[in-house]
Amino acid sequence: MPLPVVRIIPRLDIKGPNLVKGIHLEGLRVLGTPEDYAQHYYEMGADELIYQDVVASLYERNSLHEFISRTAREIFVPLTVGGGLRTLEDISAALAVGADKVSINTAAIRNPELIEQAALQFGSSTIVVAIEAICQPDGSYLAYTDNGREHTGVDAVQWARKAEQLGAGEIIATSVDREGTGDGFDLALTQEIAREVSIPVIAHGGPGCVEQVADVVRAANIDAVAIASIFHYEAVSKMHSSHLGAEEGNTEFLKSGRTSKAITPASIDQLKQHLVGQSIPCRMRAGG
User: Fold this and answer.
1) What is the pLDDT of residue 162?
2) What is the mean pLDDT of each run of 10 residues along the chain (288 residues)?
3) Is 113 a catalytic residue?
4) Nearest partner of 99 among 69, 58, 142, judged by Cα
5) Which of these is catalytic: 35, 36, 132, 186?
6) Phi/psi at 283 (nearest 5 deg)?
7) DSSP string, 81-136
8) Is the dihedral of CA 55, 59, 60, 65 positive or negative?
9) Nearest-angstrom CA–CA distance, 18 and 30
């Protein structure tokens, strides 16, 4: 089976005014402002962007509308927005200010009918179901919510199948165990979900180098990868953010000038060139 044209999607986790990055979706470090990174990734040839409000579940609301509006005016690639979207009205509001797609997790597990209702109202291509999975001692995967903190007891692979049946247009498969570690994607999780559904699957969580991105594409024949650390740690030295000196949040890592030892930073261009060299098709920017 030929490999699909793989979409490369930087993921921007946002807390308050800051772009943040953690490990296992926790221990969030401030890296700068999301606008700076979004613009940089757009210029570097990102196929899409994901904005995720990582504290929205705590407040039961998404606070990214201002970010979305500003980004949509300047960046012309599809933008997926997640975090705190619990009703059709929430989804409508996110789309109204410029999001192309929405990512839902907590609300979808609590009320699966939301997927069906949203797909009918806004179209399946607009509705992305995010699955935050943690591997269990028996090798199965359970879905979690609230940035991997809340146990649901729902089998992640079966949930992916049900989400497709209800009308989801895409699945983001996040390995909470691997997220931010640099240990590589959870190939078994991604393979199981990709085999279970016919809609596009976006792998997320764990890559520390470009070789590991190629590994998951080949192993699971997926449509897209969502990447944070590899890109963020390559871009951080190029950012001249007005918030670099901010005291809000954990800024010590940013001020130190260090990067993570587990991550080999790379640009979007470098990743795409590596994939093409491995006979994995992707969209190259003009002149790239």
Assistant:
1) 98
2) 89 90 72 91 97 71 78 93 93 96 96 98 98 97 87 96 98 96 97 98 97 97 96 82 47 52 92 96 78
3) no
4) 69
5) 132
6) -85, 120
7) EESS--SHHHHHHHHHTT-SEEEESHHHHH-THHHHHHHHHH-GGGEEEEEEEEE-
8) negative
9) 6
Helix then strand then coil, % of the chain, to nearest 5: 40, 25, 40
d(CA 166, CA 188): 24
Active site residue 132: yes
Q: Where are the domains of the chain?
A: 7-277
Least Cα distance to 105 among 147, 139, 153, 155 occurs for: 147
Beta strands in the chain (DSSP E): 7-15, 18-23, 26-32, 49-53, 79-82, 101-104, 127-135, 141-145, 150-155, 170-175, 201-204, 224-227
CATH of 7-277, one of 3.90.1210.10, 3.40.50.150, 3.20.20.70, 2.60.130.10: 3.20.20.70
Geometric angle at alpha carbon 84, from 49 and 71, rounded to 5°: 30
For residue 2, the model assigns a pLDDT of 78
The token pair at 236 is 């951080």
**pLDDT score, position 148:** 73
pLDDT at 258: 54
- Could you say which of 13, 90, 164, 179 is catalytic? 13
Give the 3-state secondary structure of residue 139: coil
Q: For residue 237, give the nearest of 219, 266, 257, 263 by alpha carbon.
A: 257
Does the pTM surpass 0.90? The reply is: yes
